[in-house]
């Protein structure tokens, strides 16, 4: 099952954890003290580039009756939507640029280009997800209520087909999953919601989603249909495909940050009396990175540095790459794992986990305390005291013992 005692799992004393927290605080202070004109230029240039791409995409679609123009316009618009959602919208609404005191680039005023309301997202994501990261029963992002991503979730027959089906549907329509999340449909169906508050949220979602649908599937198609080189239908289809491109990419980036091997899950007991150092530790253990150059960093909203983002959700995204070197050095110092890998490998691991957990536990070889996607402090029960030096070393020792057992079993079977 999930981790119930973070310090025990991490093999750190209370003093170690607090020292770890102090060093992370020092990194934050250094970045806050050095924020300035270059950072402001970065976000303003990113916004300008994104808007230019969107305009270019929509202009190209005025010739969308031609297949080549349709694909070029659709791809350009899809990239523009990715940048707006990932590097701009997500990060602006985290308050990463509030220090600039620019009313246009502020977490309280930004409304992004997707069906969900920014107001709703700031609650479900900024508050619930980032405060209660990967805590079962608190963080709705753990499986989004429909996908089994940990053995702590009881297997149900619908998981046999539903895990892969719902993950595919969620990827294609990710903006709608994000938009509907704040409505808490599960509580509504069970009659456990505050009906008055629900009606307010439904109305707010309806207004935003309605405006988004009208913009993408009525207004812009109608405008481009005035061109002799385009039709209403061709532009409507292009907008739909551009939204799917954005949705699938955003889903992949988010899943790579939370569901590969090594992104730990926690129980509610972990949050009781949690100190700042323990919060830092849980954020780091519950997140995963993927590796890439500057373009992949930019297109992912710098969420390839998900660990650093969860440690410092309100620091400018363009600074996360430099922060990552210092965080990785701290992990080495405290013998903690720094979960990262190739993007395609990390994404493949999320699908492997989702496919594997579509099966009942009796068909799975790993235990509930020692599986790649679900680990706890009990995975170290068989280690001798001298083998429990630190988390990274202890995990290596457990893996070594498992390899030895498999080799012995093979020899006995032969």
Attribute tags:
single chain, 414 residues, mainly alpha, two-stranded antiparallel sheet, 16 helices
Per-chain topology:
Layout: H1 6-10, H2 14-34, H3 37-60, H4 67-93, H5 118-131, H6 159-172, H7 174-181, H8 185-190, H9 195-224, H10 232-258, H11 276-285, H12 294-299, H13 306-311, H14 320-333, H15 343-356, E1 370-371, E2 374-375, H16 391-413
Antiparallel strand pairs: 1-2
Helix pairs in contact: 2-11, 2-14, 3-4, 4-10, 9-10, 10-15
Question: What does the model show?
Answer:
With 414 residues, the chain is mainly α. It has 16 helices and two strands. The chain has helices at 6-10, 14-34, 37-60, 67-93, 118-131, 159-172, 174-181, 185-190, 195-224, 232-258, 276-285, 294-299, 306-311, 320-333, 343-356, 391-413; strands at 370-371, 374-375. The chain has a two-stranded antiparallel ribbon with strand order 1-2. Helix 3 (37-60) runs antiparallel to helix 4 and helix 4 (67-93) packs across helix 10 (232-258). The longest helix has 30 residues, at 195-224. It is globular and about 75 Å long. The model has no long low-confidence stretch (mean pLDDT 92). It comes from Mycolicibacterium arenosum.
Element order: H for helix, E for strand? HHHHHHHHHHHHHHHEEH
- Tell me, briefly, the overall form: globular
Describe the sheet with the most strands: 2 strands, antiparallel
Give the uncertain stretches in residue-range form.
none
Helix content class: 55-70%
Query: Residue-averaged pLDDT, rounded?
Result: 92
Q: Measured on Cα atoms, how large is the radius of gyration?
A: 23 Å
Count the strands? 2
| SS strand fraction | under 5%
How many H/I helical runs? 16
Distance between the termini: 34 Å
């Amino acid at each position: 099952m999930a981790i119930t005692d973070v310090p025990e799992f991490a093999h750190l004393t209370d003093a170690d954890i607090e020292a770890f927290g102090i060093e992370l605080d020092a990194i934050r202070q250094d970045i806050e003290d050095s924020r300035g004109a270059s950072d402001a230029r970065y976000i303003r240039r990113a916004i300008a580039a994104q808007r230019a791409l969107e305009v270019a995409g929509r202009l190209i679609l005025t010739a969308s009756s031609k297949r080549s123009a349709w694909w070029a316009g659709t791809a350009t618009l899809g990239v523009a939507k990715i940048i707006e959602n990932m590097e701009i919208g997500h990060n602006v609404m985290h308050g990463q640029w509030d220090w600039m005191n620019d009313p246009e680039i502020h977490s309280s005023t930004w409304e992004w280009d997707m069906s969900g309301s920014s107001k709703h997202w700031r609650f479900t994501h900024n508050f619930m997800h980032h405060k209660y990261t990967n805590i079962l029963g608190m963080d709705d992002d753990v499986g989004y209520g429909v996908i089994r991503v940990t053995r702590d979730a009881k297997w149900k027959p619908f998981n046999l087909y539903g895990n892969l089906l719902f993950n595919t549907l969620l990827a294609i329509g990710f903006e709608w999953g994000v938009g509907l999340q704040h409505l808490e449909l599960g509580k509504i169906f069970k009659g456990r919601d505050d009906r008055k508050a629900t009606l307010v949220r439904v109305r707010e979602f309806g207004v935003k989603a309605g405006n988004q649908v009208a913009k993408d599937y009525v207004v812009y198609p109608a405008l481009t249909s005035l061109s002799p080189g385009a039709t209403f239908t061709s532009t409507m289809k292009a907008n739909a495909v551009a939204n799917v491109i954005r949705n699938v990419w955003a889903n992949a980036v988010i899943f790579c940050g939370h569901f590969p091997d090594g992104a730990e899950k926690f129980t509610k007991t972990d949050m009781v009396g949690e100190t700042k150092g323990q919060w830092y530790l849980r954020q780091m253990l519950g997140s995963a990175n993927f590796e890439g150059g500057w373009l992949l960093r930019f297109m992912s909203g710098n969420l390839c540095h998900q660990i650093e983002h969860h440690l410092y959700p309100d620091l400018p995204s363009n600074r996360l790459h430099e922060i990552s070197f210092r965080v990785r050095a701290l992990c080495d110092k405290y013998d903690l794992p720094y979960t990262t890998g190739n993007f395609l490998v990390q994404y493949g691991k999320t699908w492997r986990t989702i496919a594997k957990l579509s099966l009942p536990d009796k068909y799975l070889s790993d235990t509930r305390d020692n599986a790649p996607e679900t680990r706890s402090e009990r995975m170290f029960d068989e280690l001798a005291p001298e083998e429990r030096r630190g988390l990274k070393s202890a995990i290596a020792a457990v893996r070594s013992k498992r390899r030895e057992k498999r080799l012995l079993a093979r020899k006995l079977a032969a």
